[in-house]
Amino acid sequence: MTTAKPQPLTLGWIGTGRMGSVLAARLLEQGCDLTVYNRTRSKAEPLAKRGARIVDRPADLGDRDIVITSVAGSEDFAEVMTGGQGLLANGQRVPSLVIDTSTVSMDVSQAIREKAAALGSALLAAPVSGNPKVARAGKLSLAVSGPRPAFEQALPYLEMLGRTVTYVGEGEAARLVKICHNLILGVVTQILAETTVLAERGGIARSDYLEFINGSVMGSTFSRYKTPALVNLDFTPTFTGHLLRKDFELGLDAARGLNVPLPVAALTHQIVVSLIGNGLGDVDFAALLELEARAAQLELEPEGRQVSDGLEAG
């Protein structure tokens, strides 16, 4: 006897910003039945051209099997979930599973998890590691926490979003994993900025220094895909200084609650605050390089060299 394949699930998507639009498009490329909501409807229109249906309220996604969210922060997540037109607001019809790919506070996530559970819906925290270009290349990583059966149900769709999917436990465990990840993100970028300026002050081209670093044991996927920005001073935002500050403050709050000293992260947080105070909060956080150069009284110029970001296919 042949076992029938399970029917594909219907999906909803909330948030079609820089990251959300790319991830939603990956689901459409896999033939998923997708309905989307975005606060500014025009930003969702490109997905409609690729087969998505657009609705006007998060609550309109209540008939979907799974709804995935990709929003800027905790307040946005609470609004689209439990605000006046939120997905969980009327309590009448809700999806069986909600997956949040954003970086939000554990307290907000827990409150929404409890609200969802009371309505018969499970919440998976599934924050992603990477920027939109990494997402387009299919190289995102996801940490996921929540009920294990819900994770198993969601896994085929999560695997459409990224290269690796790691289940890290129940509750808000994935939130803490992502916060720790973003602390590393800021600290590594700051030391890259410091050492790159030091090398340039000593007469070494940024591209040469970073080529060496990327080929050494200290090189990483992250250092490689930030290299073009550092070499050519292209600070088009993929993740802004404001967002990095938000995540550092989430991390420092978690550390206080768990009684863990974070001296390096605390210092880097102050540097990120200075980045914003110097008018660089709205560009990519790689502008930490510019902040460091200003402190060293070094005037940077784009090198105009084509360098790999390490994200090429294969």
Give a quick set of tags describing it:
314 residues, alpha/beta, Rossmann fold, N-(1-d-carboxylethyl)-l-norvaline Dehydrogenase, domain 2, 2 domains, 6-stranded parallel sheet, 3-stranded mixed sheet, 12 helices, 9 strands, 48% helix, 12% strand, disordered N terminus
Question: How would you describe this protein?
Answer:
The protein has helices at residues 18-29, 45-48, 74-82, 106-118, 132-136, 148-161, 173-201, 206-215, 221-232, 241-258, 263-280, 288-295, and strands spanning 10-14, 33-37, 53-54, 66-69, 97-100, 122-125, 128-129, 141-145, 164-169. The longest helix has 29 residues, at 173-201. The protein has 314 residues and is α/β, with parallel strands linked by helices. The chain has two domains: 10-171, NAD(P)-binding Rossmann-like Domain (Rossmann fold, 3-Layer(aba) Sandwich), CATH 3.40.50.720; 176-295, Orthogonal Bundle (N-(1-d-carboxylethyl)-l-norvaline Dehydrogenase, domain 2), CATH 1.10.1040. Mean pLDDT is 94; it is low at 1-5.
